[in-house]
Amino acid sequence: MSSSILILGGGCFGLTTALELRSRGWCVTLIDQGTLPHPDAASTDISKVVRMDYGADEQHTAMGQLSLKRWREWNARWGEDLYHECGFLVMSRDEMRPGGFEHDSYRFLSSRGHALHRINAETLRNQHPAWNHALFRDGYLNPVGGWVESGRVIARLVEEAKSAGVQIVESAGEVAPVHAAGRCVGLQSAQQSWDADVVLVAAGAWTPVVLPHLQSVMWATAQTVFHFQPDDPRPLMPPQFPVWGADIGRTGWYGFPANRDGLVKVANHGPGHRVDARDPRQMPAGEEERYRDFLRQTFPALADAPVHSTRVCLYCDTFDGAFWIDHAPNHPGLIVAAGDSGHAFKFTPVMGGMIADVVEEKPNPWASRYRWRSRSEAICDGARAFD
Description:
The protein has 387 residues and is α+β, with helices and mostly antiparallel strands. The chain has 9 helices and 21 strands.
């Protein structure tokens, strides 16, 4: 008889795990509180960055490399390019120095044979003229990397899961684990209950709501996103305008080239502010001016472009910035896959296999980094860390 699993959450963690476990013979039911793609989920946007640049972080670089390969394979399988390999340009206002994201990424990838292109103020002016070359003086272009149409990817994965035999339950409302005889045996909403051998909570920013005992180690953090619509998007398209980071290691600013609709997405991977995922999304006062001030300094031609739309995106941040993927101690039958910390979607093609190995308690070379842990044994993931 096949093992059964309930997966709570239809984002990149939940859907890829559902597909992987179904391919391994599991009976899989995926439940989401809303419709899929969920309009409030972090993954439901027009784009996410795909890169292997991670400073001197060997594991995340390797995960990024394999993900890039599989994004290309998904493009081929789908017969549609949802991953766009236009490159990743990272620039610094100062000379790149050891310890900085730009320097360490450049050195680490170059030492492993990747052909990166060093960019100075002059080459920035000549090759990427939308940038303020008087302000940004050092950096590099990695031609391998780009962006993915994240919301459309989620829609594709939903259809693949249905075709594979995953039972998908949408608009379930608030859902909570059910425990009996010291074990997690299912999930329940106000209207319905479901039973299975094990339960995986992959609810993104809603995870600390579903599992309140995790609120000391993970929480929802609100980040803002702006979509601008310039009158002439052509100068803001590849190759002269690829995916970019502008002093990203210090300031958090990053963004994308104009898409097919002429929209330029700009965002900030900063500290944000803690919120409850159930609360209404509110854009902070003065946020548009903060963005325009950045654009005036960095991309003057974009500074006055009309705002097409905005989003308040919720990360599920862990206290040390590392993902959280493990069986729950003292809660047999319950597994958690959460803690995206704002840098998970690029790894979508490799997450399902890793999480499925954790579910089945099989060895996985990457999973130990994301084990259950206390704040006293922080991994201190360089991708994102908090006090």
